[in-house]
Design a protein that fits this description.
The model has no long low-confidence stretch (mean pLDDT about 90). This protein is an alpha/beta fold. It is built from twelve helices and twelve strands. Helix content is about 45%, strand content about 15%.
Length: about 325
């Protein structure tokens, strides 16, 4: 029964993807400069000893599959890969249309329009009702639009951004358009960081892998190294933490290890599903909301109308 459901889900995803057949741009071969990037990440991948530490069952399977894709150098058109799409990419879904309409109705549409413009790296599936973009790009910019509506913060004002669980690096490219001088940190597993490195390098961005250096985008998979970076961040700066369906997918004990971030990052975006495996996330984030309110944060849980049993938790605490 499980195999039948998986095949049905994959077939449905492929059918939706085919709606954009005429708009997709397939890469037929690696460019010469790509081989240097592939060589770098292949060397790093060979050093990874697969670990189940701090991962729930779903992500143990996921991490192993990502590592295999990288070791086999199957990154050409990787955003057409059904498994990558399942974990990282939303494409031709009708709820994306309503998100797009909401952005187009906004007084800031000219800004959102620039941010949702898609590129061809990885051959992302174009959104069949707006082929200048992809469903995934629209969806991620929509999160920022909703947070902007709530907090009234100008997204250009953020000096430092930490994204917990950065997918393939899409949000990092969005913030590079918003403010090229901001510092962007993605904290993720070693194997996913390698995928991000490939994508961001292909986008010609200033990115480093597990290094505390001057790169504008740092990919970090070691919590001690992350803490070193956070310790140096000025609390007087406007600092943003983003976790879209990532913080809610790790064990509760691991979440506690990351609380040091919130002493420096007073603007926070969480997206989460009610349940993940056996964890009641709605109950968990309601507790976080109450703690934030006691600490003089503006904090609100918002129902995602487009996705049943999914929510935002938006927090901010204006600087004194």
């Amino acid at each position: 029964m499980i195999n039948i459901n998986v095949r049905l889900r994959d077939s449905t995803r492929k059918l939706r993807a085919n709606l954009s057949f005429f708009f997709n741009t397939k890469e037929t071969k690696y460019e010469k400069k790509d081989y240097k990037i592939l060589s770098e990440i292949h060397v790093e991948a060979s050093k990874i000893n697969f670990s189940k530490e701090d991962k729930l069952d779903t992500h143990q399977i996921f991490s192993q599959k990502i590592l295999n894709i990288i070791k086999k150098k199957k990154l050409l058109n990787f955003l057409q890969n059904s498994f990558i799409q399942q974990m990282f990419f939303i494409h031709n879904r009708f709820f994306i249309l309503f998100e797009l309409i909401e952005m187009r109705s906004s007084k800031n549409w000219s800004e959102w329009k620039k941010l949702i413009k898609e590129n061809n790296i990885g051959n992302p599936i174009r959104y069949f009702l707006y082929p200048r973009s992809s469903g995934n790009k629209i969806h991620q910019v929509y999160h920022l639009k909703k947070y902007n509506d709530y907090s009234k913060i100008n997204l250009r004002e953020f000096s430092n951004i930490i994204e917990f669980g950065g997918g393939y690096g899409n949000m990092a490219t969005i913030f590079n358009k918003i403010n090229k001088s901001s510092n962007y940190i993605i904290f993720d597993t070693k194997e996913v960081s390698l995928l991000q490195y490939y994508y961001l390098k292909k986008n010609k961005l200033d990115v480093s892998l597990n290094k505390n250096n001057n790169s504008k985008i740092k990919l970090i998979s070691d919590i001690a190294k992350l803490k070193q970076i956070v310790d140096k961040i000025n609390t007087k700066d406007k600092n943003l933490f983003i976790a879209n369906w990532s913080f809610s997918e790790i064990p509760i004990e691991f979440r506690k290890k990351l609380f040091f971030i919130f002493k420096k990052f007073n603007y926070q975006i969480f997206s989460f599903q009610h349940y993940f495996e056996k964890i009641d996330n709605l109950k968990y984030f309601n507790k976080i909301k109450k703690i934030n309110v006691r600490n003089n944060f503006q904090s609100k849980i918002i129902d995602l109308k487009s996705k049943k049993n999914n929510y935002y938790l938006f927090n901010y605490k204006k600087l004194d």
